[in-house]
Amino acid sequence: MNRRTFIAGTGVALAGAAGTATQAAATTDDKQSFIFVHGAWHSSTHWNEVAERLVAMGHQAFAIDLPGSGLNAAYPQSYLRNDFAAFATEPSPVANIGLADYANAVTAQVEQMAEHGKVTLVGHSMGGLTITRVAEAVPHLLRRLVYVAAYVPVDLASANDYSQLPENQTSISGGIVVADPVATGAVRINPRNGDPEYLERGRQALYNDLTTEDYLKFAVAFNPDLPVRVGIEDARGTVQRWGNVPRMFIRTTEDHTVPLALQDRMIREADTATPRNKFVVRSLPSSHSPFASMPDRLVTALVQR
Q1: Can you tell me the distance from the alpha carbon of 168 to that of 214, in angstroms, rounded to the nearest whole number?
Q2: Total structural domains within the chain
Q3: By CB count within 10 A, which of 103, 121, 191, 305 is most buried?
Q4: 203-253: per-residue pLDDT in tens?
Q5: What global pTM score does this model have?
Q6: How far apart are CA 139 and CA 118, in angstroms?
Q7: Is 87 within a domain?
Q8: What is the rounded radius of gyration, in angstroms, for the C-alpha atoms of the chain?
Q9: Would 43 be classed as within a structural domain?
């Protein structure tokens, strides 16, 4: 099993689990099929609350585990032994995974779900790189691309290139990296590190609008390694294919990982490249992770036209 699925029509129990979802049930014409692509260190699990709400409204929602993540994860042996000294240098078992592997996995799921209509593809953070690649492969199968505080390279090639820009200088996510990416082949964090100072750095970087207790509920499902290749490979789309798919950008205004200035730069670049197909822009007063801190408001943004 390489992914988790949440299919519409699962009944009253799931509808109740959605709590105070702000949208009424979707009409037949408004129903959408969503695929969620997680970002660095995350997995399909982190989209549960959003997916439950969408399903309760009559949509289909599917959250994928990318290769090397979630149920597909491969862990350094030192991490499993809690040998954190060795963990700082052990090569990553996912180091050979690249953007093509991510895109192929998501494209296969898009092709399956698109048998019942076009798909809305949602990418969070580094997941934006993948959904752009998928749009290059199968633009005709996509209803819309949604970038949630996500990388969308246009003028520069990679997420790493954008991380060097002045607009990214207020990002603090580098403070949770625990190993040399050149030595390990991965951008590595340590979700098992119980040091309160380290945990607080992670909360501030990724979930700064959650309490520590609530943050830890999400952090326990983190994967330690993001393959370096994903961040340095060319993730640009072409105007002819990616550029013709309708798209939305959900800005996260209190983001300490992908700063708002960087989000806005990427929006401007994309709109300049495709002036006849500009982003629909929504803003949430959230951290980098609105799926955790404000799932109702994120769902409302996702279903808006």
Answers
A1: 27
A2: 1
A3: 121
A4: 999 999 999 999 999 999 999 999 999 999 999 999 999 999 999 999 999
A5: 0.91
A6: 10
A7: no
A8: 18
A9: yes
